[in-house]
């Protein structure tokens, strides 16, 4: 009964100053909401990064050709050959027994034309297994076949966005597109479903946007285009000589991945140590690193959010100190009528905790709508500013904030603890007032 009476008195006192109470609650509400939001976004980023690494495959090793620094090729006339060679591809497959399959990949930037429609994109020379490894699924038609590869057929498969832009009203299957800067036409045998982009991984594996790709058999690409690629710059022509841009290796067991990766590096080391034009990415290794840093990342995000809660607690203390000064005469009257110091302390603590509970409850409700609000903001940006969205990192397009269950009770409990902690000093100060001096206060 005593507690209920104290609670009623404290709650009525808060209602007498609604604006002051509201401003006090805002600090706690923002702190609690930010704890839940930041942890949700952090968890979403961690899971998305982990998913993208897992998509590459725990049993794969990716070897990429990298354009060497300009100082490495400063004395050469004309374009310098760099990167992976087909002979190295054959050597890796034949000399390392734990490698079960290998996918050679060649990539160049090109323009694709159908009639008067023109699309900039990436021309990818690959094998039929490429679709399985990169999780590409046909929407219409099919992907490349072994017969296409063996017979070096002039066929291609379009990514979803390329098909939409070149064929907004027609069925592309069976039609032929023209690749700019070449004299060849390629018959379309398939159109792929939309595939989300992947973020840059490992510092050496750049982000891949699959929506602007056109896929042809790699042997057809070598026969029609060759290894020397000339690109037109601003008033100049630049050339590069690359046989393979990437080799994706699959290992028999994930237990052998790290040892196989060391063998791959040793095999390629002597030929590329001078130019530094090859990088090896091991998704399994990156996955282990991601798991170890995940906890540290979440703790760091939680600490940032906790700062806002502490700031809210300081705001509560300042406002309660001002309230104590303003209600000095009231405190004197209560003491004169028989209220004990513990009663005064309890009343002000109840007011502080009530503010913290209300702020925490509102903060939890607002924090729980984080995933919905992120999706709404992303859809709005896609509608109002599609060009800006296209420039943002791929993870922005796929990020799904995940509410961490422990964050809700944790944030709410911390808000109450902060309310009690920062409310003790004003409550004790109010209780220690001399009743006679308090009654004289104007």
SSE arrangement:
Layout: H1 2-16, H2 18-56, E1 60-65, H3 86-95, E2 99-114, E3 117-126, H4 130-134, E4 138-141, H5 146-150, E5 155-158, H6 160-166, E6 176-179, E7 185-192, E8 213-217, H7 218-224, E9 228-232, E10 237-241, E11 246-251, H8 257-272, E12 278-281, H9 283-326, H10 328-336, H11 341-368, H12 370-384, H13 386-391, H14 394-398, H15 407-431, H16 435-440
Parallel strand pairs: 3-8, 5-7
Antiparallel strand pairs: 1-11, 1-12, 2-3, 2-6, 2-11, 4-7, 5-8, 6-7, 9-10
Helix pairs in contact: 1-11, 2-9, 2-11, 2-15, 9-15, 11-15
In short:
This protein has 442 residues and is an alpha+beta fold. The chain has 16 helices and twelve strands.
**What global shape is seen?**
elongated
Output mean pLDDT.
82
Main beta sheet strand tally, sense and closure: 6 strands, mixed, barrel
Strand order of the largest sheet: 2-3-8-5-7-6
Q: How many distinct beta strands?
A: 12
Whole-number tally of structural domains? 2
Helical run tally = 16
Beta strand %:
15-25%
Order of H and E elements: HHEHEEHEHEHEEEHEEEHEHHHHHHHH
Q: Determine the fraction of residues in helical runs and give it as a percent range.
A: 40-55%
Distance between the termini: 33 Å
Radius of gyration: 33 Å
Low-confidence stretches: none
Structure description:
- With 442 residues, the chain is of the alpha+beta class.
- The chain has two domains: 2-53 and 289-440, no CATH class; 67-276, no CATH class.
- The protein contains 16 helices and twelve strands.
- Strands 2-3-8-5-7-6 form a six-stranded mixed barrel. It has a two-stranded antiparallel sheet with strand order 9-10.
- A hairpin with a 2-residue loop joins β2 and β3.
- α1 (2-16) crosses α11 (341-368).
């Amino acid at each position: 009964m005593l507690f209920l009476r104290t609670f009623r008195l404290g709650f009525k006192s808060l209602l007498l100053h609604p604006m002051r109470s509201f401003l006090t609650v805002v600090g706690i509400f923002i702190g609690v909401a930010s704890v839940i939001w930041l942890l949700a976004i952090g968890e979403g980023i961690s899971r998305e990064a982990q998913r993208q690494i897992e998509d590459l495959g725990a049993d794969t090793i990716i070897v990429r050709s990298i354009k060497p620094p300009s100082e490495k090729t400063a004395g050469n006339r004309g374009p310098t050959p760099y990167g992976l060679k087909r002979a190295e591809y054959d050597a890796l497959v034949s000399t390392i027994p734990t490698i079960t399959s290998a996918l050679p990949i060649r990539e160049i930037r090109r323009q694709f034309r159908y009639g008067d429609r023109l699309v900039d994109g990436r021309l990818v020379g690959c094998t039929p297994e490429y679709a399985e490894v990169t999780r590409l699924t046909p929407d219409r038609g099919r992907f490349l076949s072994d017969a296409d590869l063996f017979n070096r057929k002039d066929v291609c498969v379009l990514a979803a966005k390329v098909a939409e832009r070149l064929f907004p009203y027609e069925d592309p299957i069976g039609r032929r597109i023209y690749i700019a800067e070449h004299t060849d036409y390629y018959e379309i045998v398939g159109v792929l479903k939309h595939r989300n982009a992947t973020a840059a991984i490992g510092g050496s594996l750049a982000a891949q946007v699959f929506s602007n790709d056109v896929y042809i058999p790699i042997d057809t690409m070598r026969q029609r285009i060759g290894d020397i690629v000339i690109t037109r710059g601003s008033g100049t022509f630049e050339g590069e000589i690359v046989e393979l841009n990437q080799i994706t290796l699959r290992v028999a067991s994930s237990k052998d991945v790290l040892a196989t990766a060391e063998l791959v590096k040793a095999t390629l080391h002597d030929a590329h140590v001078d130019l530094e034009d090859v990088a090896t990415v091991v998704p399994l290794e990156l996955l282990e690193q991601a798991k170890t840093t995940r906890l540290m990342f979440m703790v760091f995000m939680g600490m940032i959010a906790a700062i806002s809660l502490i700031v809210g607690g300081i705001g509560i203390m300042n406002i309660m100190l001002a309230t104590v000064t303003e209600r000095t005469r009231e405190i004197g009257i209560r003491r004169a009528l028989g209220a004990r110091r513990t009663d005064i302390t309890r009343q002000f603590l109840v007011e502080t905790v009530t503010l913290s509970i209300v702020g925490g409850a509102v903060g939890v409700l607002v924090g729980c709508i984080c995933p919905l609000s992120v999706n709404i903001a992303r859809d709005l940006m896609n509608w109002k500013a599609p060009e800006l969205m296209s420039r943002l990192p791929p993870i922005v397009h796929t990020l799904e904030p995940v509410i961490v269950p422990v964050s809700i009770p944790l944030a709410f409990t911390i808000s109450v603890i902060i309310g009690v902690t920062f409310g003790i000093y004003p409550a004790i100060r109010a209780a220690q007032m001399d009743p006679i001096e308090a009654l004289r206060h104007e």
